Amino acid sequence: MEFLSPLRYPGGKAKVADFVQCLIKENALLDGTYVEPYVGGGSVALSLLFNEYVSDIYINDK
Prior knowledge:
With 62 residues, the chain is α+β, with helices and mostly antiparallel strands. It is 29% helix and 18% strand. This is DNA adenine methylase.
């Protein structure tokens, strides 16, 4: 069975890392915990942690 995705290129969340950082900052969520159930390459989670937007990350991938 073929599945169609509404996304042009599924995966590769690195392009949204800046957007997520902006959301966290604008909503005063700094130093919180970021949870990502489908981490893939981990670019967003690691970017948030290394740039000190969050204090903890919990990641998982199947």
